[in-house]
């Protein structure tokens, strides 16, 4: 068994979409301050303060994120079993940034993988986007069109994972923005996990995917520490 980290780092003033607040991280109590308060030189402690969006860094959306209707589940109301299970990784890196990932793209990627989508699977989409550092490039990415998202939902997919800010495409010229993949997730109760960091070794593989959210009452999403558990002997 081997654990692979799929999470992007959260740090002070990390670039985020315009709809979110950049994370603020600061030293709340230093070792020197706590030692002075405790009046001892034998030990001390340090703590940090955090302010950030519930969609900061690698995160999973709750259904309340885009569904104002009664009964939509906040993050603390979604069963933990939804964040733990079998997954496959498909390579969609050939789709250009700003373009739509189509059903045909997914069907071709699945055929290349040699895998099958099973009911309850998470499907992670490798694009290489998490390796981009130029702000102009980070904010433009490919995303699923409605038919592609419906195709995944029709196959019983539990969770869609992407390396980009969103499972929907993002282009500066699209005003107002449209979120067809998010709408499918809302209507079909399919989770989506964004801002993953997917390594090449996961492409075309099956593995255990875990992305447990924080238990934040009423939150519309939560940062997660996403991991893949690989059985290299299989």
Protein model, in words:
By secondary structure, this protein is α/β, with parallel strands linked by helices. The chain has one domain: Putative cyclase (Glucose Oxidase, domain 1). It contains 5 helices and 13 strands. The strands form 3 sheets. The protein has a 9-stranded mixed sheet. A two-stranded antiparallel sheet has the order 2-3. Helix 2 crosses helix 4 and helix 4 runs parallel beside helix 5. The chain is globular. It starts with a strand and ends with a strand. The mean pLDDT is 95.
Percent of residues in β-strands: 15-25%
- Mean of all residue-level pLDDT scores: 95
Total number of beta strands: 13
The name of the CATH architecture is 3-Layer(bba) Sandwich
Determine the N-to-C terminus distance. Answer: 10 Å
Protein topology:
Elements: E1 2-5, E2 24-29, H1 31-38, E3 47-51, E4 59-61, E5 84-91, E6 100-101, H2 103-113, E7 122-126, H3 135-138, E8 143-144, H4 146-154, E9 159-162, H5 180-188, E10 191-194, E11 206-210, E12 221-223, E13 227-230
Parallel strand pairs: 5-7, 6-8, 7-9, 9-10
Antiparallel strand pairs: 1-13, 2-3, 4-10, 4-12, 5-11, 11-13
Helix pairs in contact: 2-4, 4-5
């Amino acid at each position: 068994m081997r654990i692979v980290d799929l999470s992007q780092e959260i740090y002070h003033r990390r670039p985020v979409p315009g709809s979110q607040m950049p994370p603020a991280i600061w030293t709340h109590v230093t070792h020197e301050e706590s030692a002075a308060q405790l009046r001892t030189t034998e030990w001390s402690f340090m703590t940090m303060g955090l302010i950030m969006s519930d969609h900061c860094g690698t995160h999973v959306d709750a259904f309340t994120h885009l569904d104002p209707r009664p009964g939509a589940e906040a993050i603390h109301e979604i069963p933990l079993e939804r964040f733990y299970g079998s997954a496959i990784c498909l390579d969609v890196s050939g789709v250009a940034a700003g373009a739509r990932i189509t059903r045909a793209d997914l069907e071709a990627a699945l055929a290349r993988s040699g895998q099958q989508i099973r009911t309850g699977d998470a499907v992670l989409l490798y694009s290489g986007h998490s390796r981009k550092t130029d702000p102009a490039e980070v904010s433009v990415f490919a995303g699923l069109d409605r038919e592609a998202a419906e195709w995944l939902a029709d196959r019983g997919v539990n969770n869609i994972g992407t390396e980009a800010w969103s499972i929907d495409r993002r282009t500066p010229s699209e005003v107002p923005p449209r979120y067809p993949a998010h709408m499918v997730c809302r209507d079909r109760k399919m989770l989506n996990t964004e801002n993953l960091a997917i390594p090449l070794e996961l492409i075309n593989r099956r593995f255990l995917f875990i992305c447990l959210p924080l238990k934040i009452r009423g939150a519309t999403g939560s940062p997660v520490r996403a991991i893949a558990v690989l059985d290299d002997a299989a």
